[in-house]
Amino acid sequence: MKVYFLRRLLLVPLTVLGVTFLVFAITRVMPGSPLERELQAAAAGNSESDGGGGGSGGENSALSEEQVEAFEREYLYDKPVVLAYLTWLGLYPRERLYSEAEFRPSGQGDQVSEERVGTSLVKDPEKQVLVSLAGTGRPVVVQRDGSTIQWARYADPDKEISEWEDIRKDGWQFRYESPEARFARHLEREKGKTKRTADNYLPRAVLFKSRTSGLLQGDMGQSSVYGEPVWDLIKSRMPVALYFGVLTALLTYGICLPLGILKAIKHRTMLDNLSSVFIFIGYAVPGFALGALLLVYLGATVPLFPMVGLTSQDFETLSLVGKIKDLAWHSVLPLLSYVVSSFAFMTMMMKNNLMDNLAADYVRTAVSKGVSFNRAVFRHAFRNSFIPIATSLGSLITIIVSGSLLIETVFDIQGFGLLQFRAITGPDQMLIMGTLTIASFLMIMGNILSDLIVALIDPRVKFQ
Q1: Which strands form 173-177's sheet, in the order they lie side by side?
Q2: Total-model pTM
Q3: End-to-end alpha-carbon separation of the chain, Å?
Q4: 230-457 is a CATH 1.50.10.20 domain
Q5: C-alpha distance from residue 235 to each of 230, 239, 247 (Å)
Q6: In the chain, domain spans
Q7: Mind listing the pLDDT tens digit for each residue in 183-222?
């Protein structure tokens, strides 16, 4: 059995990789990408100001070609899907501190750069260009020979060119981009519908630093909707998700299991019949619908509980006891909505399983041999009755973290479920990938944990 679970654990990374790659590929082709939103927003702003609109990167657009390319680099749209996925994963380096400048035809020297440095550092603008390094602003002169970059050195007007320092000693890299390559990227972006030609582009020198930064390094990228790191957003929602998830699990199992046992023992009594009525009423009412009713009647009509949020506005100024009371006061209605659906299911499952085992031969044999009824129930029948319920214990990991989208929306609770929903409706590719990675990993681990719990409870189960 150890070998079986070891194999399952070894398959976890491969399964997560398969799921994340599939979703990553889908998000690349689905409408509403971060780049499309920026282009639409820019086009809308441009049309309001001067009646223009449409196009990308300089064609009747408020975004320049360089700005569009910067968005493509940030969200990995400048790479093929496999290479982009490896970059997001952290197995392929990505370019950071990106700097660029165009080689100009003879007669169109870089006057701005010359004024800035105070002397003419660029002797031949067709073969040399002055680049300002991102992050530091330090001037660098780049020289090419045809389509090859010969050197890139820190500009120092007080020294000879041969004495200038090579930028590669500080980890900088450089490459040459031809007009044809730049036009090909523009043509692909515009899906072949463009008035431009390769003559509209100039050759360009690009300076950058490579850095491997992705999921394996703890970097899930930047959210295009929130403008914050994805991991920071997930971390900020985890405490809320864990709080409601753990309380829901404790209340559900802490009440449903004893109630199910009591109903099985008191079958067809007044207690069993009355509790069944309330249980099935609760089962028939969805959690979000119950939440809406509770808000109307106990939040607005009779203001016994707060309507939205998890804490009061003055929460930080309260004492420790006051914070606990305030948190509990805000948690009553959401918790009722969380547990109502699973409450009925878990109670009836416990009752029905226990009744089946109480009618089994081994329980009757134990009682006939002098075992007390209570011992027969809790020592023999309960353990076998709990096995079907144990199969769902592993899924508690996913439930604890994922929460409930609808309930969080009704009560305006900033939990993990609402974050996933907003990532999809954004759509926010990096946030979708971040939340999906967490959710898929927890789901797989939950399934493994369920098998392990069943094997521990039932010695008859042998996984091979």
Answers
A1: 94-102, 204-211, 173-177
A2: 0.77
A3: 6
A4: no
A5: 9, 8, 19
A6: 95-211, 230-457
A7: 888 888 777 788 888 888 899 999 999 888 889 998 888 8
